[in-house]
Design brief:
The complex is a heterodimer of chains A (267) and B (210).
Chain A (H helix, E strand, L loop, with lengths): L2 H88 L6 H26 L2 H6 L1 H15 L3 E7 L7 H22 L3 E8 L3 E8 L5 H10 L5 H12 L1 E7 L5 E8 L7
Parallel strand pairs in A: 1-2
Antiparallel strand pairs in A: 2-3, 3-5, 4-5
Chain B lengths: L1 H13 L6 H27 L3 H22 L3 H25 L7 H23 L2 H5 L8 H28 L8 H28 L1
């Protein structure tokens, strides 16, 4: 092998080496980033699982409290009401005792109603028994009894079953939205529209308030310990849903909740 | 090579505003390459020897590329080393140009040392990119960075021209027939690859900033 051949081979070798180095550098860095991305995805998945576990624990605890309130305290109050009713029949004196007893009975009624409302808010029994649409309807009726805001519920195409976990999360989102409307929007009317197609569940929450619903949710997100929009987003994130806020004409805000593939898995 | 250098210089000149400080030095390197090519032809036709001009341009390009790598390399120690190495390189050039090999022949000693140093800078920059935590954190692939492509182009060209620089003077003195045409052809191919990679780098810069 003469010197020219050595140099030619050396040059070809160097050229190949140069190209190889460039390719290796690209692939190596790509692999590092892909590995990091995979780790990040795993971490996110773990966080999501933790969040689901926390929310499930929270729901179970709420259910237990709601049942205790309804079955025990509620039942005891009902007995108290019955006793008061019986007592009123025996009271014949005209010293105002009958009047006071009537007031006490009415007060007991109010307590029972409040208890039902709290129990219903803690865990909507209708959700398990009748489904999301009816649970939301019942929630609106309950809210109408207790608040100054007129809440209307409209539904169409509600023949589709909603997965239990998804239904509960959507219910909580609507609940959170309603709380915020009552607190910040200064609305007099709220309309909840429920619509479902086989692949998409849509719920619109419209209010005729000051249009500051989103601001208030955003503010509560920034506050430490306050859940607000973060809670709504986390819940929708878990079930693969989304929320969009828009200005309503002439006044107010429209919150549009969308959940795809919401039906329970078969089998 | 002159045609390719001029050709690649057109898009670079048109998109000159899109280049950042370090990328501008890659552009200056391209300008120097065109001056190198044009000047060599003129010197060859006027003085029948353009090798003195080649040596001067090698030095000029070494300075330009050293500044380019000064912008790219983050490690302060290596930055300092690049600055310091400029002086011994100039001394070697002067020694080679005036004393060792002379100005009328190819200065292989300086050209080889220059190529070797630039290859080292290129490798250091590759390593820096590989271990750049910021890039990994932000999931930035290095093939989206213009400077990666410029460095890759330079690296491939310098890899290929290393043996050429080392032996050019020897081949000038000892005629080896037609076989020594293979080496310039290979250098020419690496030059084309360099131009293509520079163009890719320019496209990446364009995509980043438009």
């Amino acid at each position: 092998m003469n010197i020219v051949e050595i140099v030619v081979i050396g040059t070809i070798g160097m050229l190949m080496l140069g190209i190889l180095v460039v390719i290796l550098v690209i692939f190596q860095q790509k692999q590092v980033i892909q590995h990091k991305l995979a780790l990040r995805d795993k971490d996110l998945e773990l966080q999501r699982e933790r969040l689901v576990a926390v929310l499930q624990g929270q729901e179970q605890e709420r259910k237990r409290i709601a049942e205790d309130l309804h079955d025990e305290v509620g039942a005891q109050l009902s007995v108290l009401k019955l006793n008061l009713g019986q007592l009123s029949q025996h009271l014949k004196t005209g010293n105002g005792e009958a009047e006071r007893l009537k007031e006490t009975k009415e007060f007991t009624d109010t307590i029972i109603q409040h208890l039902r409302f709290i129990s219903q808010s803690l865990h909507p029994q209708a959700l398990d028994n009748l489904g999301l649409s009816h649970a939301l309807d019942s929630f609106c009726s309950l809210m109408n009894k207790n608040k100054q805001v007129e809440i209307a519920f409209k539904t169409s195409g509600n023949g589709h079953l909603v997965d239990r976990e998804k239904a509960l999360n959507v219910y909580r989102v609507v609940q959170e939205l309603m709380n915020n409307i009552l607190k910040h929007a200064q609305a007099s009317e709220v309309l909840i529209t429920y619509h479902s197609t086989p692949s998409l569940l849509s719920i619109d929450v419209e209010d005729n308030g000051n249009g500051r619903l989103l601001d208030s949710l955003d503010q509560s997100r920034r506050k430490t310990g306050s859940l607000g929009l973060k809670n709504i987003e986390s819940r929708l994130n878990i079930i693969g849903g989304s929320i969009n806020f828009a200005k309503r004409t002439p006044t107010g805000t429209v919150a549009q909740i969308r959940v795809e593939n919401y039906q329970p898995a078969i089998g | 090579m002159m045609g390719i250098e001029c050709l690649i210089l057109i898009p670079f000149t048109l998109n000159n505003r899109l280049l950042d400080k370090s990328e501008k030095w890659a552009y200056y390197y391209l300008i120097s390459s065109v001056i190198f090519a044009v000047g060599s032809s003129i010197a060859a036709s006027l003085f029948h020897n353009s090798l003195w001009f080649t040596s001067i341009m090698h030095l000029a390009q070494f300075v330009i590329l050293s500044i380019y790598y000064l912008f790219l390399i983050k490690n302060p120690l290596i930055k300092k080393l690049i600055r310091i190495l400029l002086f011994p390189a100039v001394i070697i050039f002067l020694l080679d140009f005036f004393k060792l090999e002379g100005m009328l022949t190819f200065n292989s000693i300086f050209a080889t040392i220059r190529t070797f140093l630039l290859l080292c800078y290129g490798i250091i920059f590759f390593i820096q990119l590989l271990f750049d935590e910021d890039l990994v954190k932000e999931s930035v692939f290095i093939n989206s960075l213009p400077n990666f492509w410029f460095n890759a182009g330079l690296f491939i060209y310098l890899c290929c021209s290393f043996f050429d620089s080392l032996t050019y003077n020897f081949f000038l003195r000892h005629s080896v027939g037609d076989t020594n045409l293979i080496i310039p052809s290979l250098v020419f191919i690496s030059g084309i690859i360099e131009a293509i990679l520079f163009y890719i780098g320019l496209m990446k810069a364009k995509r980043q900033r438009i």
